[in-house]
Amino acid sequence: MEEAKRAFGFVCPHCGKPVYAERTSFAMAAGRMDIICECGKSTLHMEPDALQQYHLQVPCGVCGGVHDAVCHDQALFSGRGIGLACAKAQQLCCYIGWPEEVHVKLDALAELCAGLREKEQRPEEQETEAFYNDVIMYEVLSELKEIAGRGGVSCACGGKHWTMKVHHAAVDLVCGDCGAALRIPAANDDDLDNLCCQMKLVIPGKM
Fold it and tell me: Fewer CB within a 10 Å sphere, N or C end of the chain?
């Protein structure tokens, strides 16, 4: 019987790429562990102590720094997963848990960090923040990934391909066949609640 695995996901603050890795519980319990981005410039480091706790150093794609965290072994080894937050932005920057859960969360986090990096590269814009609400934007992106993962995004034109465009306070779902767009607000709790009530999202399509 194959040993259950836990997944780790974060976004490299140097190259901006999502970093995903899986480890068995045995490997995690064996001692210090490093997960290194393929660019070689960032490393998630985890090391146990004598009190059944794990000390982590987590690269943060949100603020560009590295954060220290301490987690109990039960939180790391059981359940759907845990999120570790950026101490500066109070925004999730790392996820550890079931592989399927980490995949969804990491995809959303990568979208968020890509938007932040794009905004930083355009200093002429007058917005003081990349997103109206970073936490809401992350949750909206995560929810959209979950809806898409169960085949819940479609277009009235019948097209099968679509992309996302992330804005300051909204996300556009754009049909790759007809070019129509569906705007999903992402500014406040009401926007998130409204999205969470949706089982399917249909892009209106163009005649």
Answer: N
Please list the helix, strand and coil fractions of the chain in percent, rounded to the nearest 5, in that order. Answer: 30, 35, 40
Phi, psi dihedral angles at 36 (to 5 degrees): -110, 135
pLDDT tens digit sequence for 83-112: 998 878 778 899 999 998 898 889 888 988
Q: How many Å apart are CA 57 and CA 172, to the nearest integer?
A: 34
Round to whole Å and give the CA distance between 144 and 141. 5
Question: DSSP assignment, residue 103?
Answer: H
Strands of the sheet containing 92-97, edge to edge, are 18-24, 5-11, 92-97, 81-85
pTM for this predicted structure:
0.62
**Count of other CB atoms within 10 angstroms of residue 186:** 25
Count of H-run helices and E-run strands, the chain: 5, 13
Q: What angle do CA 5, 9, 13 make, to 5 degrees?
A: 155
How many beta carbons lie within 10 A of that of residue 29, not counting itself?
A: 15
